[in-house]
Amino acid sequence: MPTTRRERWAWYFYDFGNSAYAAVVLLAVYSAYFQGQVVGGSQGTRLWGISVGIAMLIVAVLSPILGTLADFSASKKRFLLFFTTLSVIFTAALFFVMPGDIFAGMLFFILAETGYRAAQVFYNALLPEIAAPEEMGKVSGNGWAFGSLGGIVCLLIVLALIMSIGGTTIVRFSFLITAVFYLISSIPLFLWLRERAEPQPLRQGEGYIGVAFRRLSDTFRAVRQYREFIKFIIAFLIYNDGIMMALNFAAIIGAVLFGMTQQQLIVFMIIIQITSVAGAYVFGILADRWSSKRSLIVSLAIMIGAVVWMVFVQNVTVFFVIGAIAGFALTGVQSVSRTLVGQFAPEEKSAEFYGFFEVGGRTSSFIGPAVYGFIAAEAALILGGRGMDTINAEQTGIRIAIGSIVAFLLFGLVLLLKIRQPETEEIGQSSASL
């Protein structure tokens, strides 16, 4: 059954909502609030990295099993609903996190982040159902661009409240606003988008969990058939480390290196979201006109240049410029990576392949932030022990840790150069042969 215009817009609107979560909780507000007020200092940076890492590890374990189960039972939307609800509830619960509430601040964030990331497995897996292989780049890019607009709108609402009223209570109230924004934006997908896959019958005496592990085992045994996909996942695991480190610590970098206020951080993230819209749209078009691989290489190269520049920047205005460039590049990386998975995946294994994609993404998201947080905290501790004052030690530790972002991005790019992207005809043949 052909996809309707309304179904695609429903899919775009979900991105509109979950991008608001990413913009407010991950990027602009909660990360800085947790690091600076809930915990404080380099310990806040370290615990933020651990919190992100725990959530990513949970999703990395669950994703391939649940993705396989969703394919078999044709229940992508059901899983999407469950994890979206989880994220919305605990995003709202962040309102109750006060300065000093370290355990609650970590727990509520981990649950909200787990829901947000796990939901993306099933949201992404719906892409092959609403777009043919030759148009996935454009549809994926449109979704990411429209989603970035959602982040901008929500940040503008939050910024207006913080500037007009101010105070910690308004900062915390922004998490309730984000939860409602996320919830409302997700409703059209559940009402309008029809899941086209049909559930497969169970064998006699077999349960769904057994099916999930059997299908995973079959995929692993057939790994030669998907070796280019596996090579891509390894490359993605590494360069996505760099992307996640840059995203998860952007607000902390701005606050520590330049003493940026909450209002400045929100404006900074709005700029990133605006350039993200352009990046997602441009790289989505390039993915279809050139190839997804070439588009991805260009976006990664731009991202590397921006992060290298960040190591040396001393001026907050230049930091804003770097953020704009990085925003343009990073959504290209994320959107085109999502497109490539859809092009590698046989139609009936889309959620399974996106589950493995999430394993790569969430494993890297666990490793990257933990590495960054450890390097920044340990460097600050060592430098402080050698007589450097606390502020300079923390700032230098941040700059040293930024170098690790460059290393991950560069190594991932090198591996990406060795991957052969499937042609549209090959995708169809692979799907038909399974």
TrEMBL record:
Is Calcium given among the entry's keywords? no
Which terms does the record give in the GO molecular function aspect? transmembrane transporter activity
Asked if the Swiss-Prot or TrEMBL record annotates the protein with the keyword Signal, the reply is no
Q: Report the PROSITE patterns cross-referenced here.
A: MFS
Q: Which UniProt keywords apply?
A: Membrane, Transmembrane, Transmembrane helix, Transport
Tell me where on the tree of life, at the top rank, the source sits. Answer: Bacteria
The record's Gene Ontology cellular component field reads: plasma membrane
Q: Which segments cross the bilayer?
A: 12-34, 46-67, 79-97, 103-123, 144-167, 173-193, 232-259, 265-283, 295-312, 318-336, 366-385, 397-417
Specify the Major facilitator superfamily (MFS) profile domain's residue ranges: 227-434
Per UniProt, subcellular location reads as: Cell membrane
Concerning Gene3D superfamilies, the annotation shows:
MFS general substrate transporter like domains
Q: How does it sit in the membrane?
A: Multi-pass membrane protein
Q: What is its main location?
A: membrane
Q: What is the designated name of this protein?
A: Major facilitator superfamily (MFS) profile domain-containing protein
Name the species this protein comes from.
Bellilinea caldifistulae
